[in-house]
Amino acid sequence: AAVPQLVSPETGLLTYPAWLLMLEREYYLAWRANRSLSILIFSVECPQATRLGVRIIDGPVKEFLSLIMKTKRKYDVLGHYKDGLFAMILPQTTVSGAKSIARRMLKSLEAKSNPFNAAPLSCSFGAADVRNDGRTLSMVLMAAEQARKTAEEVGPKILTYRDLLIDKTPQEQELFRQQCILGNLNHSVYGSLVEGLKKELSCQDTGVFRLPIFQHFLQHDYRRALRENQSLSTLSISIDVQDGTLDSQRQNSIKRSILSYIARIKRRTDVLSEYYNGQFILILPDTPVSGANHLARRINEMVEHGKALISDGSCEAKLTFATLDAVSNYEVLLGETSVQ
Q1: Is 336 helix (H, G, I), strand (E, B) or coil?
Q2: Which residues is 239 bridged to in the sheet?
């Protein structure tokens, strides 16, 4: 089931902040594993529908977006972008691959009948290489935006950021980049959008993601790991505060201290969330079970030595861990499975 905070009720696509959240994680995954990653920003408009007063997301536009959802790879991430645009994250895809995907989208659009007197939809696409078209994620977004804008105003309908630089000298390329950066300083706002969404998705008592967010990321990571033959494991954690005299508020405070420590040492790509039966769980992409076991030992050693900042007199916390291969145990992980 879709997570309401992540999905637009109007289209069923990820909201702009949710798409940015996924992009941030995919960005770190690509850098860590030295894999390709591209983004595709595009517009979909029905000029005749607009003249008739029909809302931009209604009718053929919505049908086209539904078609993209059905035909894209399962681990590609389609969502809303700002200013009425749409965007797709394409893991393990070069910009050449992104252009091929955009061409297929245009081809399906041309073959699709339009209820508004067969008036065609108007689309323009801009692609950027996340690892090579900008020094920061904000600059990469700017690059894809600039490519799409040029595709819309000048043509052709599909452009990459590199296409804009082909006929320029190195000095002209640098000047062009600087002009684009100066005109897009508002990109810095994306960080606050992501952090705001993370806070909304987290439990107030523990500070970690709620269970539905675990299910969302597990499904996404499972689809990619299965298709690309990548490792994926989970680490379940049960925290038992061994002092019956403490009230629930103090016990929660101790648990939160431990979880805060785990959040500090985990990788940016790992997802820490609540799990069933009062437990917690980490999703560990690109990690075999042996790696999950190593992390469990590290966490346990740090807690035993008091480095997780949980010392409180005679109070002790006992941690119990369970690791699973998430690919072969996907259905089990989505059910109510307790740590053994």
Answers
A1: coil
A2: 319
